[in-house]
Amino acid sequence: MDAQLQIRQNAQEVQDYMKTLFDWEEQQKKKDAAAAAEQVRRQTSSTYTAPRTATDFERAWKGLKGDAALQTQYLQQLQAFHLPSIFKQSLTAPVLRSIVQRALSGVAAVDPEQAVALLEGLSQVPRFDMTLMCLPSRDKAALRSEWDAVGSLMDMDSPLTASFMALRKRFRL
């Protein structure tokens, strides 16, 4: 009887040890994956410099597709007053939508002043009004809800909020 009890205890200890080992291995895999992802993120973000032309911007933007954090960092590199000279006559509706969406959902959370400046810079791009008219209604609805979400988080008495709301009229949302 004592031998059976000892065998059960030993089996339980082995099971506990194996479970602890398995959990540790899983944690290590997650840590390694997170470290590798962060390294790739750092390398990728340093690869993309501020664009000089719309083609440069679109090439980089497509390379960052699917990674909201990197797109946000990329937009933060831009100086808003350069946007009209970068895009000139080349701003397309899909690019406009994606930039506005990332400015509202990413940049505004980190730096609301930068987000407002980017939106102001976009509104100064030549043919902005024409490009805006080319946005599908579903995209406008999505941007409208993003705009509402950001606006609800802002201090209503702030001059920044007033600029933000004035830009909403400019974007016809």
From TrEMBL:
Enumerate the Pfam families for this protein.
Answer: RPAP3_C
Looking up InterPro entries in the UniProt record yields: RPAP3-like_C (IPR025986)
Q: Which top-rank group of organisms is this from? A: Eukaryota
* Domain RNA-polymerase II-associated protein 3-like C-terminal positions: 50-140
List the PANTHER family hit by this protein, alphabetically: OS05G0129900 PROTEIN
State the protein's name. Answer: RNA-polymerase II-associated protein 3-like C-terminal domain-containing protein
* Organism expressing this protein natively: [Myrmecia] bisecta
